[in-house]
Each structure stands twice: as structure tokens, then as C-alpha cells.
Amino acid sequence: MKGKALALAALLFCCAFLCGCEPKQQAEEPALVLGFSQLGSESSFRIGNTKDIEEKAKTYGVSLMMDNANQKQENQINAIRRFIAYRVDVIAFSPIVEEGWDNVLNEARQAGIPVILVDRTIKTEDESLYLSQIGADFYEEGVMAARYLMRKADALQRDTLHIVEITGTENSTPMKQRHDGFWDTVAGDPRMVLLESVNGDFLRSRGAESMRYLLEKYGDQIDVIFSHNDEMTMGALPEIEQAGYTPGRDMILISIDAGQEAIDILKAGKINCIVECTPMLGSLLMETALNVKEGREVERVIHPAERVFSDEDDLSALLPRGY
Ligand code: GYE
Hints:
Elements: H1 2-21, E1 32-38, H2 44-59, E2 62-68, H3 73-86, E3 90-93, H4 102-110, E4 115-118, E5 132-134, H5 138-156, E6 161-167, H6 173-186, E7 192-199, H7 204-218, E8 224-227, H8 230-242, E9 252-257, H9 260-267, E10 273-276, H10 282-293, E11 301-302, E12 308-310
Helix pairs in contact: 2-10, 3-4, 5-6, 7-8
The structure holds beta-D-fucofuranose.
């Protein structure tokens, strides 16, 4: 026993000695320092997007400075200024609204720091203020939602469908483009009649409020609810049920994002169609930022592939959504 203990002690001593003699491992230099201003945490899309960017930064050896602006443009501008002061290699941000970025982006340019837009885009006189936009084709999402509704109208043999729309954040890219894509597509179809479009700011609470207002005003005139994201749809659902209607049957619900919670409700028959908007943009962002740092050309607009999930599909084998 004593012999064994001695042998073990000797072994431990040797190990400690050998480790001590080994050159200390240098802390690895990050591949790049990336400042990212996230716009907030308003939805499962946003939370999934933040998580994916954090995870992919680790995978790609990128040192990430992440700031959450809590739904305020002013906070995003301050974060971008901090990234400039810190002299990060690349700045990325998800602009909450489209306008009002030129000053701060000019400051980034003067400091020689390249900028990438994630998810949403901006309006600017000077397109060279950012190198690339990585995000969904929101116009196409609106088109896909409208095409589903036209197929549904055919299937139900309806002459008229009265539609209410609950839109996302005013002046944000997804709000504008989803609206345009949808209404441009149904424009030539006389069955599609807009009752009213209200703003729900992409929030569950505002989705509920909007739905209450619409139900009080239009009641059973409402045939279709086109909601610009899952969060607002899920806010609207209990209101519809409390008003005595069966969502998915008495009223057609169309949503966007396709996070797990909404997909489960679609499978249960209370949502009819969800257009995918994937928040998994982390890998594309890391690859683009690394290319930018190396001075390689990058694509101006990068859209992830997206699809539609609806009551037309068999979704039993669908993999977990991850957000
Ligand atoms: O659809 C919504 C989120 O900008 C695409 O923002 C994104 C939208 C997404 O809050 O849920």
C-alpha cells in the first residue's frame, strides 16, 4: 500500500515537473475583433439570432463585443461609437429602423473600420457606408405569404377574403418589405380585401392589443390575419379564442419567422401558414467579417435560403427549429 502511494506521488511529481517545464501556451490571438450591436430581444427570432452569433464567434475564433440596444436606435449609435473608440477590426449591426445612420457610419469610415449589416438594412445616400448586408429577402417573404393565401382561397372556393394586417416595427426593413411583397402579390386578385393594417412593433403584447382592437372593430368580418412575426401572432391567438373564434378555422392565420413555439401551434392547427425567417446568420456573418478583414471581396447582399410551412404540408418529420 505504502509502495503504491509512493509510486503515485512520484508520478504526480513528474507530471507537475514536466508541465512546469513546458513553455506556457500563448493565449491565442483572436482571428478578428468584431463589434456587434444587436437591436433588442423582442422575439424568439432575435434571441435565437443573438445566441447563434455568440456561438459562431466562438467556433470561428472571433472575439465578439456584443451590445444589446433594447429597441433604441440611440443605444445602437452609442454602441457603434464605443466600437470605433475600441478600434475593433469590423463593426456589424442589425439596424432597428432604416434611417438615421449616416453620421455614425461616416465616423466608422473615418476610423477605417468596415461595416456589415445583419438582418435588416438601412437607407442612405451613400451606399459605400457599408460593405455587405446579410439577411433575409423580406419582400420575398411577403410574396410567399400572399401566394399561400391565394392557394387557400382557391381551396376554400372563397370569393372574398377580408384581411387584417399586424405589421412589425414602423420604418424597419422587414415591416416595409413584407407589407409590399404581400400587397403587390395580391394586387390583381379581387378576392383580397384589406380591412385595416395596424402596427404591432414585432411585440407579443402589441400583437394582443392590435388583435383586441381589430376584433372589436370588425368582429366576424375578419377572414384572415397576416401578422409580420410569430411573436405578434402568439399575442393575437388568445384574443381570438377569447372572442369566441377558432383560430385556423374561423380565421386564417399567416405568420412569419417559424420559431419552434409557433411551429407547434401550426401543427396543432391554430396557425395556417408560417413563412420562415431564419435567425441563423452567425456563420455567414463570421465568414464575411473574416473575408473583410483579409481584404477579400464580399457579396453586397447575402440572403439565406428560406421556405414556407403550412397546413398543406406533412410536418411530422420536421427537425427542431433551434429558436
Ligand atoms: O421577423 C422579428 C424580429 O428583423 C427579420 O425582427 C427580423 C424580424 C423578425 O423581431 O421576429
